[in-house]
Design a protein that fits this description.
about 525 residues; alpha+beta; seven-stranded antiparallel beta sheet; 19 helices
Amino acid sequence: MDLFKAQVSPYTSVRQATYARNGMVATSQPLASQAGIDILKMGGNAIDAAIATAACLTVVEPTTNGIGGDAFALVWTKGNLYGLNGSGPSPKNISIEAVKERGYEKVPKYGWVPVTVPGAPSAWAELSNRFGKLPLSTVLEPAIRYAEEGFPLSPVLAKFWNRSYQIFKENLKEEMYNHWFETFAPHGRAPKTGEIWQSKDHAKTLRSIAESNAESFYRGELAEKIARYSKEHDGFLTTDDLAEYKAEWVEPIHVNYKGYDVWEIPPNGQGLITLQALNILKEYNFSERDHVDTIHKQIEAMKLAFADGFNYITEDKWMTRSVEELLSETYVKERRKLITDNAMMPEAGDPRASGTVYLATADGEGNMVSFIQSNYMGFGSGLVVPGTGIALQNRGYDFSMDSNHSNRLAGGKKSFNTIIPGFMSKNGVPLGPFGVMGGFMQPQGHLQVVMNTVDFQLNPQAALDAPRWQWIKEKQVDVEHNFAHHLAQGLADKGHNIRIALEPNSFGRGQIIWRDPSTGVLVGGTESRTDGIVAAW
């Protein structure tokens, strides 16, 4: 792959790819990108920059992530790729029966029931302890400063903030949600574009995490505040749940797609879905990106992979089919046979029988980080711990209440998790981090970005700018408003139910950084569908 082949994007965009040598940070928020670059200039490495950027994003993009959320990372350093799973388990004393006793037939979207142990602070500490060069207190300073002094909202951020506010205003009437409104709608409404928002409580919490290396969050004053708030409102989360948690180092999983190794975090993340779809598609020769048959096969492969993912993915020790089985050549051949010229209704196979922020960083030494962080579904559970600014996630919403399902709700268990960082290499040489945030769009975005890069030789910005499709359910496929009409019509002729979606942000928001192995030059792209930039040095 020639990283510099597509000098000009063939797709409409206000940006072209960014090139640099000493360092690069790509995020959905300019202030966060700049915070990461500042850390690099202070002598930090790509890992320090990733932590700084992630912490900053909890302040400058709280609509999609927060201190009370989860995080995953893929880290290339010292000649190896490392995986970190910063997702937390459900409370030990929760169960299907206990939730049903409260009148729920499915896990609710808001409140304490879907709250799992937040993993992000532990992920920051683990990354810093193992690979960072600067103290965590230094790395978190930009985020602390923005929380304390405030920052002006960017346009896309303001739109989503207001959307969440309207939803919460309509649905969250109980007293326990008041702290969210006090924190994120202090004037009785969502802040507008250009208005300053600040949270001194958020700043105090970040400072406590920085000074204690995240100990206060799990075994100190912050843990006590979280547990107290949970107890006051009959939540399941306790101090024991928090005290027993630590982000987990894991072995990344991969498939070889046409000579390139594509890496993902293993389950409970949904990256396996991307890998399985790529495995199905690798035997096809795609000469054109904008061709009905190309897109049809992509959609069909993704449907098959999702069917298996929804059926099997959960915390690895609870999976009834292993990663190895789902990615085996024997099984993938059987799945590939199911793709015909017509749209199918996807069903899970049996291999034994045959709403997130994403950031990418790189430094001049060759270190690179693919990092993703989420509160899930916007602001998460609607709960903010009093006096802390901590917005708690609702990741437990994805648990199944079916006692026979692999991803069934159980105490101390990690749920199927939508957030996935990606990474690509070739012949053991790292190319770099990539990711596309956005719920169940993420593996679909990963697939499209990888194929845009490998099959169609697009540079990072062009790979992100290309019009996207999104499989929704059954035969329904959404396409962006700039998706070519003849392609949409051709897909409809094959039996897909095509819907033109007017909201661009529903198709994910991605970042990419590739590193030229011969020169060390970095080339990056950032999502044209949101407020982000590539900050370079």
